[in-house]
Amino acid sequence: MTPSRAAGLRALLVQLVRFGLVGAAGFAVDIVVFNALRLTVLSPEVIAAGPLLAKTVSTSLAILTNWVGNRFWTFSRQRQANTVREGAEFFAVSVAGMGIGLACLWVSHYVLGYTSVLADNIASNVIGLALGAAFRFSLYRLWVFAPSRAAGWRHPEPDGIQSMEVSSREAEPAA
């Protein structure tokens, strides 16, 4: 393996770890808010669509948490100069990812009839989260924070981690 390839793989691994840690923070927000709402004001005994509404609110707050973490840490070297466009794209991908989790919850709760708090958590916070996370990471990396879209926007990494991009000079072996 060439040194530039090894550096690229290391950078990808670091990015995946950071994505996971930011996701863990978002997950904590999501699960706490979801269960607080699901067990109180948005209980299915109070509002029939309560679990779906609780999940929508909790995931929206988690999306905001994740955008800040991913913009300023996970994908900090690839963020766009146009914050509004980047934010709109991030939220579009996140809402689509939220749709995956909501679909899992809907199928479990309303189609299959698994209506317990545990079943709702497994459907939305395990199955839906795993499927949604794979979808979101792929689109964040390939579209929202794509290195090719970060033209002109660079700042040094505080911990010395190098960018995912390898210039043509770095990719060529030394003569």
Number of H/I helices: 5
How does the major sheet shape up?
none
Q: List segments where confidence is low: pLDDT < 50 over at least 5 consecutive residues.
A: 155-175
Number of structurally distinct domains = 1
Rg: 19 Å
Helix and strand content put the structural class at mainly alpha
Approximately what portion of the residues adopt beta-strand conformation?
under 5%
Overall spatial form:
elongated
Report helical residue fraction.
Answer: 55-70%
Number of strands: 0
The first-to-last residue Cα distance is 18 Å
Mean pLDDT score: 84
Order of helices and strands: HHHHH
Can you put this structure into words, describing what you see?
It is a multi-pass membrane protein. Pfam families: GtrA_DPMS_TM. InterPro entries: GtrA_CellWall_Glycosyl, GtrA_DPMS_TM. This is Putative flippase GtrA (Transmembrane translocase of bactoprenol-linked glucose). By secondary structure, this protein is mainly alpha-helical. It has helices spanning 3-38, 50-74, 83-111, 117-144, 168-171. Helix content is 70%, strand content 0%. It contains 5 helices and no strands. It has one domain (3-149).
Structural descriptors:
elongated; 175 residues; disordered C terminus; 5 helices; mainly alpha
Q: Would you kindly provide a brief summary of this structure?
A:
It contains five helices and no strands. With 175 residues, it is mostly helical.
What's the arrangement of secondary structure elements?
Elements: H1 3-38, H2 50-74, H3 83-111, H4 117-144, H5 168-171
Helix pairs in contact: 1-2, 1-4, 2-3, 3-4
Main location: membrane
Family: Belongs to the GtrA family.
Pfam families: GtrA_DPMS_TM
